[in-house]
Write a structure and sequence with these properties.
The complex is a heterotrimer of chains A (about 100), B (about 350) and C (about 200).
Chain A lengths: L3 H21 L3 H26 L3 H31 L13
Helix pairs in contact in A: 1-2, 2-3
Chain B lengths: L11 H12 L4 H38 L15 H11 L10 H17 L18 H23 L2 H32 L4 H6 L15 H16 L11 H4 L9 H26 L10 H22 L5 H29 L4
Helix pairs in contact in B: 1-2, 2-10, 2-11, 3-10, 4-5, 4-10, 5-6, 6-8, 6-12, 8-10, 8-12, 10-11
Chain C lengths: L2 H22 L3 H21 L3 H26 L13 H27 L22 H10 L2 H22 L10 H12 L2
Helix pairs in contact in C: 1-2, 2-3, 3-7, 6-7
Classes of the chains: A mainly alpha (about 100), B mainly alpha (about 350), C mainly alpha (about 200).
Chain lengths: ~100, ~350, ~200
């Protein structure tokens, strides 16, 4: 038997890697994927607690989070294309103007 | 603790092996691992033979449609021609482009091959001939077949060739678009069965030909037609084979592959064609149900019938253009399948089905 | 060492490995592929926790749609590693970034350490986490009943959210007709909105 805390540790590590990715990466696409990874770490926690407490509500929350992630990917990538078209770069440090 | 997800539905041969292993005193979870490894090898062997047969069959049909004979040299009507071809491909030099992306280029055929075979975990070849009857059966198949798209994109990118890249990107756009009508047509059947499990879907069509979902007027035939069109596109077969359109893209995503890697793509393509036909049989043609003959013969016979249909599509219809393909999916198939779901749901709600 | 534990260890190590490689790769394509690997391992963890349906949905949504979209965009913009990043970042921004990252890693180590040393979750139920044959936990029917009864309004709201996302993606990525740039950019917006479904 694996204790629930083992899954929580895995989720925490994944979340941490996601955060480090968001903070250190210069590539907008990798920043974006790190955000997705953090969402997934949250999902893993929801699923683990759902199992420990023997209720299914966690699964429904995961479902909703996945939908939000899909919407976010669609809009975010559209924004990325627009940004790349205007600035010819995906370096996140180059997007330092509010208007150009 | 009992680990196998479904050990009840296993073939007699398999249960004999299980007992034999049990007598050696191996502890339970490892026993299951050994038995499932054996089962995986068995399914792999059978499917490889089936795919080899399908290649030969396709060549014969193509030849006869074009008033040729096709392969005639090896055996009766060239029956072991594809075995010779496979041996030849094994011996061929593995040509690798210097500018390729090394790891991506290597893993693309592997992912394609594995994804093609993974679906067979939940496909029942006959009564009790199923590896594991998952309660998400059909959804599981949808999940594992998505890796085909990724492998095609990997092949396109890894080859570092503009034709390959175009083929990969076309296939991604195509498969993602046609997945929507495909799932929507499957939903009609799932709606009536009330379960995603493949065994439940087949059992719901027991008791005579009129219980098959293809004969549930009016939504059954519509769902089958939309499914078979979307499935042809999913399997990248000819009216929808723009990812590898020979005349415009040389050979599309697999243009830089040779030898065994090419053979893996080629086999995976035929295994995919067999998969979509098997799903069509399970959903609409009563799976293994039939009179007199053993159940697996009925299943294989019906599946070969659908494969024949796909092959006739391939050799009689011209290829669609990219924009026509997309418009067909989004402006025709998607509205039709959604309307079909609403009709079916109304029938279910009103209790008009039999 | 039970089979449960072996599966858990392998899949969690693969998940963490994939995530680490994802943030360290130079080539965005490799990064997306490692993300897919990590997600697959996470789906295995889901299935181990009895969430068969959610595991399949995770694979379909991520591997089948979101990450394909990422691959598509990367190939479309032809982003290859370093050259697409342009000039180097200003030093102040880099310092702040790495300082924050180090702080966060320290915090993470504290979290992991405390969860190994304390027994907070030890008596929070702790049922078997492996899917068992007779165990119907996480079956599709139960999730569906919950989703369409208690959580019906959130569910409907997400469908509206998706619709808004489709429209937003199309409008954002669309370029005006008289603008003569690469032709493929305009069509990409369309396929994005579609893939988001």
């Amino acid at each position: 038997m694996i204790p629930i805390s083992a899954y929580l540790v895995v989720a925490a590590v994944l979340f941490g890697i996601g955060t480090v990715g968001v903070l250190t990466s210069r590539n907008l696409i990798i920043v974006f994927m790190s955000v997705e990874l953090m969402l997934n770490a949250g999902n893993l926690v929801l699923i683990a607690f759902s199992r420990a407490l023997n209720v299914l509500d966690g699964h429904v929350f995961v479902f909703l989070v996945l939908t939000v992630a899909a919407a976010e990917a669609a809009v975010g990538l559209a924004m990325l294309i627009t940004l790349y078209r205007n600035r010819e770069t995906v370096n996140i440090d180059r997007f330092d103007l509010l208007k150009w | 603790m009992i680990w196998p997800i479904a050990s009840a539905e296993l073939l007699p041969l398999f249960s004999y092996l299980y007992e034999l292993l049990e007598s050696t005193g191996l502890p339970q979870p490892w026993l299951a691992v050994v038995v499932y490894t054996f089962l995986a090898a068995l399914v792999f062997g059978v499917l490889s033979l089936l795919a080899l047969f399908l290649v030969w069959w396709e060549r014969k049909i193509a030849a006869h449609i074009q008033q040729r004979f096709g392969p005639m040299r090896h055996g009766w009507h060239g029956w072991y021609q594809t075995i010779m071809d496979a041996v030849k491909l094994l011996q061929k030099e593995d040509i690798r482009v210097a500018t390729r992306d090394k790891t991506v280029f290597f893993w693309a055929p592997v992912v394609c091959f594995v994804a093609a075979f993974l679906a067979y975990v939940t496909i029942p070849f006959g009564e009790g001939l199923i590896v594991a009857d998952l309660n998400i059966g059909i959804l599981y198949i949808m999940a594992v077949t998505t890796f085909t798209v990724i492998s095609l994109l990997m092949a396109g990118w890894g080859s570092n060739n503009k034709y390959a890249l175009l083929g990969g990107m076309r296939s991604a756009a195509q498969v993602v678009s046609y997945e929507v009508p495909m799932v929507a047509s499957i939903l009609v059947v799932v709606l009536f069965v009330g379960s995603l499990s493949m065994v439940d879907i087949v059992q719901a069509q027991a008791g005579g030909i009129w219980n098959w979902y293809i004969f549930r007027l009016p939504y059954g035939p519509i769902a089958f037609c939309t499914y078979i069109i979307a499935a042809t596109a999913e399997a990248n077969r000819t009216p929808f084979d723009i990812p590898e359109a020979e005349q415009e893209l040389v050979a599309g995503f697999n243009v830089e592959y040779s030898g065994m890697k090419f053979a893996m793509f080629f086999l995976a393509e035929f295994v995919n064609a067999f998969t979509v036909s098997a799903i069509a049989v399970i959903l609409f043609f009563g799976g293994w149900h039939g009179a007199l003959l053993p159940s697996w013969m009925w299943f294989l016979g019906k599946t070969f019938g659908i494969v024949l249909l796909l092959m006739l599509f391939r050799w009689t219809y011209p290829r669609l253009r990219v924009d026509q393909l997309m418009e067909f999916s989004w402006k025709f198939l998607v509205p039709v399948t959604f309307a079909n779901i609403i009709i079916a749901a109304w029938f279910k709600y009103a209790g008009w089905y039999w | 060492m039970t089979l449960d534990l072996v599966i858990f260890l392998i899949s969690s190590v693969v998940a963490v490995f994939g995530a680490t490689m994802m943030i360290t790769q130079r080539n965005p394509i490799a990064s997306v592929l490692f993300m897919i690997l990590s997600l697959l391992a996470q789906a295995v963890l889901y299935i181990q926790l009895g969430a068969l349906f959610m595991g399949a949905v995770l694979v379909i949504v991520y591997a089948g749609a979101i990450l394909v979209l990422f691959l598509f965009v990367i190939m479309l913009l032809n982003l290859r590693g370093r050259e697409s990043l342009g000039q180097p970042s200003p030093p102040i921004s880099l310092t702040v970034k790495y300082a924050l990252a180090v702080l966060f890693v320290l915090e993470l180590i504290m979290v992991v350490k405390s969860s190994f040393s304390s027994d907070v979750f030890a008596d929070a139920g702790n049922p078997g986490v492996m899917v068992m044959q007779t165990d119907n936990f996480g079956a599709v029917n139960d999730v569906a009943v919950l989703l369409f009864q208690r959580y019906l309004y959130p569910f409907e709201l997400t469908s509206i959210l998706l619709l808004v996302a489709i429209v937003g993606a199309v409008i954002l990525a669309q370029r005006s007709r008289d603008d003569d740039g690469p032709v493929d950019a305009a069509s990409s917006g369309e396929s994005e909105g579609k893939a988001a479904e």
